[in-house]
């Protein structure tokens, strides 16, 4: 089935040790998003790509970077994870960017920072 | 950022009961979406409401968009244990390029 796949489901890293989270999609959607969701909080948009155009949210820390080498794959790099970066990271896609677009989410990667 | 406030934050009910959860904002939205998120999974879209005053039904779920397009409600009739999950409302961001989510209502339906 076409879907959004995130790997790994659970990731444990050490304080300050770089970590990369992966997302792939078989939907051939133009837009890919990364959201951060902490316990009992709303998913918070970090950045998104419309095709190869990168859009960073104003309050996304510099510690977070992203790469989209092709339509199917998108990566989230955390250069120096802190304890406060422990969260569920959700990748999502949509056909277009714009009002009312349906988002298709992956199952998320739960990141723990020790 | 256009804030979305959801209430209640937590709700625990028994199977067969009815419930309503709310999503409110001081901002006007061109559309609002409702998602359900089960533990350990990503959110799944339930419905999109676009027109002020619009009512949409999805089996036992009834969604309403406020006349002023600032608020929305989700009513579940005769809740089932399978309705357990986190219900998130989401509206377009100021840029229109992405969604802003509320914190959600965590619903637990017990047998």
3D structure, described in words:
The complex is a heterodimer of chains A (114) and B (111). Chain A is an all-beta fold and 114 residues long. Chain A has no helices and 11 strands. In chain A, the strands form 2 sheets. In chain A, strands 2, 4, 5, 6, 9, 10 and 11 form a 7-stranded mixed beta sheet that branches. Chain A has a 4-stranded antiparallel beta sheet with strand order 1-3-8-7, with no helix packed on it. Chain A is globular, with a radius of gyration of 13 Å. The termini of chain A are far apart. The model of chain A has no long low-confidence stretch (mean pLDDT 93). With 111 residues, chain B is mainly beta. In chain B, 0% of the residues lie in helices and 52% in strands. Chain B contains no helices and 11 strands. In chain B, the strands form 2 sheets. In chain B, strands 2, 4, 5, 9, 10 and 11 form a 6-stranded mixed beta sheet that branches. A 5-stranded antiparallel beta sheet of chain B has the order 1-3-8-7-6, with no helix packed on it. The mean pLDDT of chain B is 92. Classes of the chains: A mainly beta (114), B mainly beta (111). The interface between A and B is medium-sized, with 27 and 28 residues.
Number of strands of chain A: 11
- Unreliable segments of 5+ consecutive residues of chain A: none
Helical residues, percent of chain A = under 10%
The most extensive interface between chains reads: A-B, 27 and 28 residues
- C-alpha Rg of chain B (nearest Å): 13 Å
Give the biggest beta sheet of chain B: 6 strands, mixed
Order of helices and strands of chain A: EEEEEEEEEEE
Q: Mean pLDDT of chain B, rounded to whole units? A: 92
Question: Kindly, what is the distance between the CA atoms of the first and last residues of chain A, rounded to a whole number of angstroms?
Answer: 35 Å
Task: Tell me the distance between the termini of chain B.
Answer: 39 Å
């Amino acid at each position: 089935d076409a879907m959004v796949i995130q790997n790994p489901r659970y990731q444990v890293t050490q304080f300050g040790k770089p970590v990369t989270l992966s997302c792939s999609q078989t939907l051939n959607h133009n837009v890919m998003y990364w959201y951060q969701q902490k316990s009992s909080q709303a998913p918070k948009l970090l950045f998104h790509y419309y095709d190869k155009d990168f859009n960073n949210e104003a309050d996304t820390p510099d510690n977070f970077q992203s790469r989209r080498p092709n339509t199917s794959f998108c990566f989230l790099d955390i250069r120096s994870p802190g304890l406060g970066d422990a969260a569920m990271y959700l990748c999502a896609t949509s056909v277009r960017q714009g009002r009312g677009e349906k988002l298709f989410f992956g199952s998320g990667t739960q990141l723990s920072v020790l | 950022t256009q804030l979305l406030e959801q209430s209640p934050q937590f709700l625990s009910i028994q199977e067969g009961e009815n419930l309503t959860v709310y999503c409110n904002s001081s901002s006007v939205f061109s559309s609002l979406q409702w998602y359900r998120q089960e533990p350990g999974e990503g959110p799944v879209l339930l419905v999109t409401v676009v027109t002020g005053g619009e009512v949409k039904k999805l089996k036992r779920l009834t969604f309403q968009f406020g006349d002023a397009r600032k608020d929305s409600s989700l009513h579940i009739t005769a809740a089932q244990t399978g309705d357990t999950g986190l219900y998130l409302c989401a509206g377009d961001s100021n840029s229109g390029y992405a969604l802003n989510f509320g914190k959600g209502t965590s619903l637990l339906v017990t047998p």
